[in-house]
């Protein structure tokens, strides 16, 4: 039955037609702030701020947000991707490694690319993907079976594919690639499988490898003596969250994950560089310019795979180019991003593994706070005081916002075990009071002293907390702030929140019925601002009622 | 009760292997995704086996073929497939349809290199088609066409382009209320909107409420090469197309 045209008009609202161009040059990526209607990369910009200059949605009208459309991925895995939006077309991934192009205003699908991942793929914590990158007319995705694939943005057809690393040896790709100039940069996940992690750059047009930086130096390289014996060969140090880029210094910054085996450091005596570090690499050559290690010789699985957040702040009376970092180990850091110099470090949640940081920012380990055969209760727990959840920095409020797990501990157990290719290589297992996201509890009955989640605002000039918004359950959600001082985030309890970025006051909330496990983002089409957030296995898109 | 009779009827038909067009279509999709990488689109890539002409080494009845599809052949490269019995029977349906349809004489002996030159030159195929990163996106991307379509299908598309246009390649035209006409490949539609790849190679989405007219174009924009290519040239172009196996 055809629906009468008049009725359609009533349903569809005001008429408009959209045509996409989908030509994204490096110059556009570099100047993404000039086109806030688009969200051109994982964090929205090279500085990792996850900040939108759009202002249609305000603290006053956010209560009028209305669901516009839902994209239900054809997968029951967690939805951890942040979409990108280019001129009215949204590109996102559906687990495990498929790419979808959608009409950003209606959610209707233009095309789907299915990566048909190998049965050889191995992932510790979900067969998931966190998003795509775009350059020119190509969309790039990494797959859980270790491939990097370039797709035609208009048809979804593959133009090239390369194997970055072997899935049978535990390597996988999960994060959205980072485009710099004419290169696509990715890092390898697999820190629980005894990989030797690396970051590599590929020619965006051909897929040819241009440079590779091993996140674990060989014995004859600087830092190589930070691993005992042959432990460097299977020391992990994975990469599974997208880095940042500073065009002024041409440095790209990446957070590096845990050393392996995770909870037994006996065979890997030393600091285990560059695990749990941030590395600053020359974007053209991949050469290391500086590094800063947050957790030397980690035996807690404190990956430093947070998004590096770059900003300019007033530091002791002078403007300074800094990097802000809320680490899984429970400390908030400010570094000079040009030199890597440590400027500030303060705990933002309950921490018992260290007594504090020395004047160079090196943690002073607390005696007897380490994994044991019987198990030791230590704060923060295995999943950290924060994790990969994208933080946000608002240049408008000058505050750094992050998702926090407080009062959260694990009983860290330790065991022996040898490396076997393709098998888990973890040296123990923590016992968790708070379940992993793969096994979320349907109901909640946890006391606050057993762990809770919060969004916290930190003043990067002092490391002091400005406000917090407490949640009953923990949170795996990232954070978005906007130029109108609205902050969006969510929680494992399935709620999607809008807070006042200045005060933390709750402005609006909606239950989406599944854990929020990605970062919100914002874009506009035909002058209308949208906010996208995933929960459960779906992506939800909101705009103000018309 | 209304639905019982047709259901029973369909079940009886299936039991007697009177396959429906949708069985053949679904089976073809499964075949291309799961079987064609070893058996080829024509079903004749394995020595002694010609699935497209009903030539099987170890099976005759539909049940026997379906059993091989699901269980594989131990000790050989033929693996078990994770298909239900009814899905395996749709693959059989597809193979049977090939056997009855391939009595068309196909040109053979084409030279892929000459075919490529014709494709990119005299044939002007790139004006509409893309292979890897070159050519237009207006028509179907042919990067892996040699994996997807049989020689007979390719020949028919070149000679009688209107004979069969796959769903994903259907051409569509919209006229907006403002008077603009846009044509292109229809990518997706629902009750209120259509999504197209238009003739300028842009992704376009239209609300039906904004349109004065919207309809499928009855004919394929693909020209027939019946009178423009010689028999040898046709064989060469087909030779090139069948060599395109994707990435």
Structure overview:
With 546 residues, chain A is mainly beta. Chain A is built from 2 helices and 39 strands. Chain A has a 5-stranded mixed sheet with strand order 2-33-34-35-36, with no helix packed on it. In chain A, strands 3-39-38-37 form a 4-stranded antiparallel sheet, with no helix packed on it. In chain A, strands 4-5-6-7 form a 4-stranded antiparallel sheet, with no helix packed on it. The model of chain A is unreliable at 1-17 (pLDDT under 50). Chain B is of the alpha+beta class and 247 residues long. Chain B has 3 domains: 4-101, Cytochrome c-like domain (Cytochrome Bc1 Complex, Chain D, domain 2, Orthogonal Bundle); 112-165 and 222-242, Orthogonal Bundle (Cytochrome Bc1 Complex, Chain D, domain 2); 167-216, SH3 type barrels, CATH 2.30.30. Chain B has 9 helices and 7 strands; from the N terminus they run ααααααββααβββββα. Chain B has helices at 4-15, 21-34, 36-39, 62-71, 85-101, 112-120, 145-148, 151-159, 231-242, and strands at 130-131, 134-135, 171-176, 181-189, 193-198, 203-207, 211-216. The longest helix of chain B has 17 residues, at 85-101. The model of chain B is unreliable at 1-15 (pLDDT under 50). At the A-B interface, helix 1, strand 1, strand 7 and strand 11 of A face strand 5 and strand 6 of B. Strand 1 (17-19) of chain A pairs antiparallel with strand 6 of chain B.
